């Protein structure tokens, strides 16, 4: 394990404002040193926003996050892990996209993801784009690491439940992604945790499908009233089962993440969000995505900066496992 | 009650980015279906900012809030009420304004408000504009629903007490509005609650007039030190008495509501503000206003979006009463 | 003709920052006085941007243009016509949209347009949205006023020729709209004038289809080198034939119109654009559109303001004809 | 004359981003060296915007212009004059304002101006604020240097004629300022030149009052069609008569000056505006103002930067006269 | 003490948007009334940003803070002190800077500071500029009020520890400032408290130098987990020893302070920061600085506004001491 | 020559918003196909802004230009050349920088440049960063292709002459770059053409050094008065001599290029600038740079977009030569 690491440009020579932007300054996947292959995580963008219901623009998310992530440093203070020493990480570029068809785009992105790294080892981290792109990464992750029956466990941060059956006659869109994932057997709803929901919503039964299928829902208001007990219980039940994490940046309050397309006031604070993520140390992540960053509505890049740190928090969870020798 | 409802454009046909903007997509008052008349609340703008002491620009508040409010959905998750099924709501357009005279503008706006809906039934919700426009709506509300003696109760969210006697020789301005309302007998200061004040202020006795008249003041710092006990006590004392709610968006911290003209750091967080508003379920509201949204200083519309959700939270308080059959 | 006019709110009572925003403060079509019916022009939005090749976001164009157009005054100084006295104009709201399918959206918008005003009299002005929405309005206009053979004449302002056969496997998109219009026989390419093209372009033969079909092309650089002779000749040949005008805001240089999705430096200045539009007095317009305004990239609303004045310049061309009794 | 000069901080010690901001880094009037007293021009702000008809916010104009003007250098390349060697210039601070009354504000600002420098020598340069503040400076200038009969000559750059009789019942506002100045006998309309007007306007006779009183009007379109002949003729007729210059930043196109409250597309380019100003070398200026800079709508300070250079161009006209020994 | 006070322009005559901007409207040091001399605090800017490691631009910090601080009022509500009655405060302008050399700049600024006010009485408050400017003010303060042995105590708010030995071969930069201060004996690390640190950081031992020298570190996460006990203990130990406060605005979360050059998510909220500052009433401050405000990344001036209120909070701590007669 | 070309990602698969950003989507130099080696031009960034005299921030220029350049297409319409078919172009990444020392940075960047491509063939295109970085590229270019005596010819677009001897005691800064280049014998001032200068300037003799050394200066005002005759004459004299082009984006008016650090009103319009560049077809370029793009002051990326098109115009000049077989 000692030789496994991610080689980034030396900031004493190439300061953080210097060089072609890759996620967190990690090497492009084609430039990874042989001794660091296969990479542990292939991080790739999916610049697609053709499945949104309100503001488009997240197709520019991967670029904005790459630029903002230049300031992400490698040592995680709370977990006390040096992420780039424990994990081999790479920027795998952007998937080709099909801007006019969510269904076709999902296939293209999945196909691209499946070619990245070593199928038996490399985990996939997709950066959106709108939430529809998660389905592509979930499919690819499931193909690589899916549990034999019932689908993967899932940890889902979001302002919205995203289990609508169809929108404007279309089954593939950014509000139906988990309905599809459940129907396709990729995700086990009984081991799915959704954090960050809040109102107003369209109608009383918006969450019914999820509840009926056994999803554990923790709304922002419940979290504040009741604390993290239900989350802690879920994590305990989850144990070491392989889990996928999907992180919609709009789980944060629009004050903290203004650059997003369907903002809803009352969301998580950065402090709440980071505390929750850190409480998940020990979870066995097999894939992840971060979605819905919309740069045109961002200011001073605060949303993209936050997103790049969420990405780091998620990777750090895996680094913690490696540091404990459990991966 | 079953047939009473607000008909909004179907989002499956007219998505939220589609159509002429009205408050929360509620119908224009001239388009309300006869079975939904008279409306329960007439929501109207007063695009006036001639009474400010620092930054002007809130005259563009109603338009910005109309646009941002397109994303406000109808079901309140915490109160578990479908607001548009319980209340008949309408956008009553903008009052004519007198941009060069606060006093004359107050008269014009009040006159306009008094013609809206059914005087015996329709409640008035004014959207500013600067805080001076509240006096117009308070006068109109008092005329419609005022208690016989001592004025209405009032719940007041604000960074500033707004009981200055006069400013630059003028009795009518956005810092004197509650002094005037008290003097005119519209508001009973002993049943007035002011939440969100904070320093720095101009001098030690800035709150003296209010304190002398019995106003219950809860500063942001007191709230954090002492919790909501004094607010809870006030609400208990208030009981079912008719109350008016005036909401200055600058009660929120400028981080959450940058688009306002006299921002003061240290204000309410969204989380605090929403919790307080929701704790007021049961209050018997007879009128309301939301003021001081200044779009030119906003970014990504976060302030206008927040304002439109505050509007929704206030209307939801009334929906809760209707749902309990007490209205 | 003396009684025909457009009634707008009196600015002495309702200043330009007051009231629900309609295009140029023209009445909503449902509020037009009977003596002003049928309207001469129905102006409607098509908030669709699902057909773009680069930046999305023009779905918010109609709203931004409505807001910016509040400052458009009614008298055209150069033509010396009072547009609102000569024409009955109305805001016909927004067409329903099909956000996920350009082809379906084109049908929906066309269907909506065909219902507006009096089919025998009312002309249609569509406000985008991306350029794909022009096809809907061209179809509807052709159905109402199309010349018997060979399609309508067309005046086309644009940075791009928009005659690509298909993009990403899709025939309906914002770069193929005039190819489709020519194929469908709606437009006669021999009487089509395209102004504002400029490089860089994708390859040498990007304009070949248009040239092969006889389109008259005047690039920005030709215009500056050669002056307006070819345009003047075209207009002379055109005479009083019915013509459709399609105006892509990106015909202007990005400095003048930053709020657009495929900006190309070197475009028309405002001074050039207005001079060209005014030189077209006498043209027999039977329909028009204005497209590609993208508010999220705009600053201080300059692009939307410019767009609303282009709309006014186009309508003024028709007013000139009415003032000469030729309509 | 050799010792007369304006002492500014040495940029080799205090770079242009250093120090408390004064107009163009000129000394505060209380800090002027005795040998440079009395100053030739006292430049003062009037942060008042209570007289506008559309967007407010120019009250922050003086501060924004002070900040942007730090980059104005002292040597005028085209006129070949070192302005700070030829003229003693000072920042005279801001006049007190009466934010709620244009009429009272006009009096306060005039009163303040009259106390600045040496009444027999010092010329007054007012920086707005909205255009209403010009009346204060015109009054003060007239009192100091007014011609015995018929009022001063005036050169007026503006998108609007500003000779409306009254607006919203008020005689004192930013659209009536020259009507008042003519009525008060301060300005001789027969020697008044207005440059930059353009449409659309409210009605055909908007300019009638001005034309009836003999004002020379040159619209933007006339200027482009006919060149500067009428302006040159005016200047020839004017000769060495004392003239006042009032410069509304909205005479420029909104592309060049987005930060203003009543923007009208089609205005002067910077190139046109500077050429016109420079063609006025030789004019005998006795006072000036620059108005309508609205920082909240500006981006990157381009409007304030432009305004500060216009101020410099105007002062340079006087420096040219001094350099020729005619002052 | 009764006559000691800071005379600011009367807001009834010169509203807060009026006048040349000085810090909090305090008088320029050359204009202080004799009875208020020597001033208690000389507040001066150091517009230098040549020592940064990521985004530059804080050279415009002092101007932005001056402008934003116009809205800072004088009475501190929580401490119940009228700051301007208790302290004589003045804006001492900006130090000359050496933009190309941090080392030389440090000397220039220190030299400038040492000349301000009365060396035996006047305390120095430096406003950055980047954090490197703190060293200048610390040196000057130490020379004036330094404890005989071991250096001054220090309270340090920051996202970063700033004890790197050198960066890019340079000992003087914004990340090495406290290393230098400790080495020079100006600061006693055993009586140094650093609040606001958080990860990610560059490597595990980033804080080692500080820890080895006995600095008390309280990270944001520790603060949330453990409360203020360690801070309270530090303050108790500190007692009445002279202490210097250095406040990096990036100790706040980027949501609250987006306008800064090395933003790190997860920082202090305004509510946390103000509570901590207020808990320090009683501390014997002998100097202070506030640094790293970067206006170009700010929006609506929220960061500069926050910074100006932090400045007020710090000054209020001293006012509290004066009010208790202990100064 | 037929096989020589630049391979960019296929936009039908990887749309322009897709993929890691390189200049104009040209391949990274390490990914160039062998048959396209050695590249004709190596384009590299130098993210250094430590030598500015006013606003810093151009260190983020290369990234912003890479992102904006994604929309630069390959065929030049006016020259009728397919640039990517005629030239082998590559993005050579960013040079290492020395943020605290202009002199050292110049050495580092020069050293980096000298290693790029084939010394006997590959031309160097540097992207700033501030103008000081030009010296590095001029040195490297001179070493590769310098004429034997008297230095290279130079075409210089700029608002400023940049021949100051030293600033703040420093010989290496962004205002002294051509003084140094002349002194070092890299540039022959007699064959140097400077376009775009304008006032105001610091003093009458600011251009004296340049004039004394025989530089041909064409100010913006001269260009408008006299046309391009002097430029045409220069180009005729220049003939086929090797020339270097240095393009400061501030040669454009701030309206067209707001994102720059020392903006000066009255500059070139896009139309003027492009016409001038295109008139230089035939010039024998051996090196080039484009500098002073400051993204934080840009809006909607218009400056970076313009810069990327200027880069394309410059490369197209070389493509024209290749197309004529003269290279």
Can you characterise this structure?
The structure is a homohexamer of 327-residue chains. By secondary structure, chain A is of the alpha/beta class. Chain A has a single domain (23-323), classed as Ureohydrolase domain (Arginase, Chain A, 3-Layer(aba) Sandwich), CATH 3.40.800. Chain A is built from ten helices and ten strands. In chain A, the strands form two sheets. The first copy, chain A, has an eight-stranded parallel beta sheet, sandwiched between helices. In chain A, strands 2-3 form a two-stranded antiparallel ribbon. In chain A, helix 9 (270-278) packs parallel to helix 10 (302-323). The longest helix of chain A has 22 residues, at 302-323. The interface between A and F is medium-sized, with 26 and 25 residues.
List the helices and strands and how they pair.
6 copies of one chain form a homohexamer.
Chain A: E1 41-46, H1 61-68, E2 75-76, E3 81-82, H2 83-86, E4 89-94, H3 102-114, E5 123-128, H4 133-145, E6 152-157, H5 177-183, E7 187-197, H6 208-212, E8 216-219, H7 220-226, H8 229-238, E9 242-248, H9 270-278, E10 284-291, H10 302-323
Helix pairs in contact in A: 1-10, 3-4, 4-5, 9-10
